[in-house]
């Protein structure tokens, strides 16, 4: 697929581009307040009550067999929705520190612990720091294929990647587990570059979190149903699976569509603010779909705006996107957006295409060259 052509910017244009995007941030930051607090507290309530309703219906179906099937289906869907909301709109955004200004200990980005097997502490390192600092820079951003998939032709091909269509499906179903072990660097242990003792020490907090989640969803709640534990256990299993697959789809659509780009480490050398914004823009993809998609994706339907402004409350991204797109249009820069089926179709194409050998394209040193650099 041919990537869209972007206008080559002069150094002055590049500086102005960054300043305009900084100004959008400043204007939004100045208005953050009660409206945003009300929003996130409604999300908290939504997570709580959809979770309570989902679990109640699972128990109702377990004890009243005449409504077992409809109660199980609705209960599982509600519990899955609760887990998606908690993961995407609540946990992800709170851990970014988007609501630290509220001084609410339950919404503090440094202490919040979310309802998945991955620890928030590890996520703050691999996602908040590594991914958002080195977005789509090969060798720096571990989210490029998560060490399992070849998504871009710039990644060196190995025979292992022939299996990646099947691996991608398994990874989607078990996504929270992949996130949980991402920072353990298990590949280094397999390669003999990490001692077993080091791996054990790194695994301890992750193991504790895994045990806590397994105990809650697959032991405590099912046992409360007594002899009818199996429907409750299966409901929890499917709800977690729904959350895993949905999270995988949203994250992959935000980073691995046909127009998304990756960059060499050299891009970081003397990178200006304008270059940084362009790298974020060219490594990100948005989704159309309206309020429902925005909510259920944690507003990562606006992945471009999230990469520009990760600590701004995500409920502001939709309105910021109007100005951001206008800035991109004025400077002749492609703003990558599309429907969920369209964007995920491109992700699937990448997974299938790059499972096979392909020649890497010509490497550019920067995400975009200024006119002077292009001439040189």
UniProtKB/TrEMBL annotation:
UniProt-listed InterPro entries: FA_desaturase_dom, Fatty_acid_desaturase
GO cellular component: membrane
Keyword Ligase annotated: no
GO molecular function, one term: oxidoreductase activity, acting on paired donors, with oxidation of a pair of donors resulting in the reduction of molecular oxygen to two molecules of water
Biological processes, Gene Ontology terms: lipid metabolic process
Residue spans crossing the bilayer: 57-81, 160-180, 218-239
Keyword Transmembrane: yes
Domain Fatty acid desaturase as annotated: residue spans: 71-337
Keywords noted in UniProt: Membrane, Transmembrane, Transmembrane helix
Record's protein name: Acyl-CoA desaturase
Organism: Luteibacter yeojuensis
